[in-house]
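Hi F.,

I've been meaning to write this up properly since the lab meeting, where we talked about keeping a consistent format for the predictions we share between groups. The idea is simple: the sequence comes first, exactly as it goes in, then the structure tokens exactly as they come out, then a line or two of notes. No screenshots and no reformatting. I'm using this chain as the first example so we have something concrete to point to.
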Amino acid sequence: MKEELLVQKSERRNDFDKPFISVIIAVYNGADTMRNCIDSVVNQTYQNKELIIIDGGSTDGTEDILKENAGNIAYWESKKDRGIAHAWNKALGKATGDWVIFIGSDDKIANENVFSDMCSHLSVNTTADVVYGKLIFRAEGRKDIILGGEWDEKKFRRRMTIPHPAAFQKRSCFNKVGTFDESYRIALDYELLLRVHGLKCKHVNSIVTIMAASGLSSTQYTKSLFEAYRAQRAHGVLSPPAALIWLIYYSIKSNLNKSR
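Output, unedited:
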């Protein structure tokens, strides 16, 4: 398997002196937005990249879109899976990049120069485990919200402060701590990063991704908070009372925002 991955890696790379980026998309019945999502990756001026798409057995025409774009996709499949974590883990088994970014089928890379602009921050020798930019959170009929600020480890212990669809994760992170825990349905990205001892993150003040307000973490925010609470307790980043206090705080804050 290692030899096979090395062969795939050499065939896909255009420039061995530049970081190689794997873009991973998990999708299920995403035909309405899948083309725009794929185009946003394919149209990047930065060529040292690959696109991997795991479809959970869609029935709405998503598979047809993947077939149409097969020439631009390094690997894709359309099979029933056990959820996002399982899909991401399967994709990681196919990815060959130095850096990995996970986006949803209803997300898109903000503009065609994003990867080129981020390239200088993605040196293989950087000490950062995660390099992340900003994310535009877009909901129909509402003002755009921009997420992603300077790295603050204390805030990260309280909640997921890294906008995951705008984050590039160094491949070596997964070698250290393993893959995503399938028992988490929403906060799986937060749980994995909490496993990284001495997590080092670098923030870049640039828009990376535009995210539609239809993902699990946005439509099931309260559930995501409870999963985050479970992850905090599991990894001891906060004492149980402190984790509970922050869970209540963010739940109340979320309900207040919805009522406005």
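Notes:
The longest helix spans residues 240-259.
The chain is about 40% helix and 20% strand.

If this format works for you, I'll send the rest the same way.

G.
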